[in-house]
């Protein structure tokens, strides 16, 4: 099935890889796409996504109103806190507007934004059928354009002579072979699937982290490129992590394992002690810090406790909560010290405002705060007194790592002495060039689409 020479070798099988492959194939290139995962698991983290963030000067497809470059850039700056390359970021933002019609023309369907969680109808376009449907549509399009797709094909090494890539080493069905190519696009994600690497970067506690996405993003090509002198971007010790249901699988739990109950709860560690203000801000602005907070607790685990007043206030969880008629029974079922949890809940209840019900507003900062309690709960502080009581265990769930390859506006990868002649990168692999820290919802798919398309176009011009 493998021919002996391709114009373009695309490494990876998620959104960024597919955008690159489609662009290059449309420009007449002979393209092979090498996906490390088996076919059933193709599509990496992209298959877990729901939306992408898109600039638009007026209503566009399912997007309402307008979302201009400056507002988009300000939103980005708020999360990266200055750690970005402004010209690259602005270029990506501007290019996002043309991406939406391009995506529709290549098989992606959109739907109006989901209501209830985050209010995103103006800024983020939601994929009908989610990222899985997007990935499937792109595979169909790529194959119709003649792209050869190889599954179970892990790239282990990039062959480079001087500043020119000559081919890639790959393992397929336990056979290692070298595939020559005129150009290569790297789009094989971060390294969060490699728990040993995470533990080296973060410390041994990382072994208890759960990985929200694919186990196949193990950073094999990223490490190979760094070992060969490619310039890196992003903090190697950092990853994006959120608090997810402690019962989620080690890998690939996806979006449904996220828990949105924290602001209406008290969160304790395994000793039954509170450790942070659960009501510090609205949940979309705080969910991303709870991964780290839980990671800093003994055994990297937390427990979110609510009573029946709050059960309907957040998106239902995929695993039902642990339920009990008393706090002591809940503690027993969760494996928490009963007396200590009782004391923590009593102290919290005593510190809550005495008649909060008329003042409580689930969807805005209501200022219902505890008094004389450390740490304070500064919003939504209502006593936990109405049985049944419910509890969820929490663990840090890693979304992606930040370390990546430095690229320029043409998506070209840079080595120690300047850009390589025929090597491009797209998606999570280079996202650190723009996202130095933090995360802006929907921007991962924007970066992958914009830079995937550029990488495919640039590679095609190079080959031509
Ligand atoms: C649960 C979850 C929800 C998310 N929701 C959103 C969202 O709604 N919107 C958004 O913008 N972002 C979201 N993100 C982030 C988003 O998934 C990423 O930014 C995006 O998918 C990155 O695309 P990519 O193509 O770079 O990587 P991926 O889609 O992860 O693709 C990497 C590919 O490389 C393959 N691969 C890895 N190593 C090798 C190798 N050595 N050889 C060959 N192949 C290899 C993998 O199998 C995979 O196919 C979410 C992430 C998670 C985990």
From TrEMBL:
Cofactor: FAD
InterPro entries recorded: CobZ, FAD-dep_OxRdtase_2_FAD-bd, FAD-oxidoreductase_2, FAD/NAD-bd_sf, Succ_DH/fumarate_Rdtase_cat_sf
Domain of life: Bacteria
Pfam families the UniProt entry points to: FAD_binding_2 (PF00890)
SUPFAM superfamilies, per the entry: FAD/NAD(P)-binding domain, Succinate dehydrogenase/fumarate reductase flavoprotein, catalytic domain
Record's keyword terms, sorted: FAD, Flavoprotein, Oxidoreductase
Segments forming domain FAD-dependent oxidoreductase 2 FAD-binding: 7-436
PANTHER family: FAD-DEPENDENT OXIDOREDUCTASE 2 FAD BINDING DOMAIN-CONTAINING PROTEIN (PTHR43400:SF7), FUMARATE REDUCTASE (PTHR43400)
Name used for this protein in its record: FAD-dependent tricarballylate dehydrogenase TcuA
Organism for this UniProt entry: Roseovarius pelagicus
Gene: tcuA
């Amino acid at each position: 099935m493998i021919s002996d020479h391709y114009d373009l070798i695309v490494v990876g099988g998620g959104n960024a890889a597919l955008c690159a492959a489609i662009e290059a194939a449309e420009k007449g290139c002979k393209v092979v796409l090498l996906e490390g995962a088996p076919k059933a698991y193709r599509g990496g983290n992209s298959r877990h996504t729901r939306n992408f963030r898109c600039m638009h000067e007026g209503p566009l497809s399912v997007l309402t109103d307008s979302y201009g470059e400056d507002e988009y850039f300000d939103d980005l700056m708020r999360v990266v806190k200055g750690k970005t390359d402004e010209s690259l970021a602005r270029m990506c933002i501007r290019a996002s507007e043309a991406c939406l019609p391009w995506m529709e023309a290549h098989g992606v369907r959109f739907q109006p934004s989901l209501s209830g969680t985050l209010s995103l109808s103006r800024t983020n376009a939601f994929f009908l059928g989610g990222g899985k449907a997007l990935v499937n549509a792109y595979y169909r399009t790529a194959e119709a354009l003649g792209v050869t797709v190889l599954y179970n094909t892990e790239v282990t090494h990039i062959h480079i002579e001087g500043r020119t890539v000559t081919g890639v080493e790959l393992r397929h069905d336990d056979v290692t072979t070298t595939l020559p190519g005129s150009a290569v696009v790297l789009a094989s994600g971060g390294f969060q699937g490699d728990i040993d690497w995470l533990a080296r970067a973060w410390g041994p506690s990382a072994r208890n982290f759960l990985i929200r996405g694919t186990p196949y993003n193990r950073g094999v090509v990223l490490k190979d490129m760094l070992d060969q002198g490619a310039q890196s971007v992003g903090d190697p010790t950092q990853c994006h992590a959120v608090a997810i249901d402690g019962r989620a699988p080690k890998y690939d739990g996806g979006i449904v394992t996220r828990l949105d109950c924290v602001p209406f709860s008290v969160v304790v560690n395994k000793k039954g002690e509170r450790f942070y203000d659960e009501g510090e801000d609205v949940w979309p602005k705080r969910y991303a810090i709870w991964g780290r907070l839980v990671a800093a607790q003994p055994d990297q685990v937390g427990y979110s406790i609510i009573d029946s007043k709050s059960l309907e206030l957040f998106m239902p969880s995929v695993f039902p909560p642990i339920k009990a008629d008393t706090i002591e029974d809940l503690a027993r079922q969760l494996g928490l010290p009963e007396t200590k949890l009782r004391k923590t809940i009593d102290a919290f209840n005593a510190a809550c405002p005495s008649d909060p019900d008329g003042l409580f507003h689930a969807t805005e900062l209501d200022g219902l705060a505890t008094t004389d309690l450390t740490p304070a709960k500064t919003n939504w502080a209502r006593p936990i007194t109405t049985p049944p009581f419910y509890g969820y265990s929490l663990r840090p769930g890693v979304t992606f790592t930040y370390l990546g390859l430095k690229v320029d506006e043409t998506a070209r990868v840079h080595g120690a002495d300047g850009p390589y002649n025929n090597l491009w990168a797209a998606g999570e692999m280079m996202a650190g060039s723009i996202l130095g820290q933090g995360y802006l919802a929907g921007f991962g798919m924007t970066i992958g689409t914009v830079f995937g398309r550029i990488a495919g176009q640039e590679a095609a011009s190079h080959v031509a």
